[in-house]
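Researcher: Structure for this, please.
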Amino acid sequence: MNFDSYNDESRREELIRMIEHSVQQLSVGELEALYYDMVAKDYIK
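Model: Predicted structure, token format:
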């Protein structure tokens, strides 16, 4: 993907859409692993 031509808000929105789509495809076990990893890295408090 080429984000050079995007402004910051457009880039952020596109990344969120891509992440949301990917997360929707995960199993419960994968979601739990992702959740615990994000908690460990302080992305989720």
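Researcher: Any notable elements?
Model: The CA atoms of residues 37 and 43 lie 9 Å apart. The mean pLDDT is 91.
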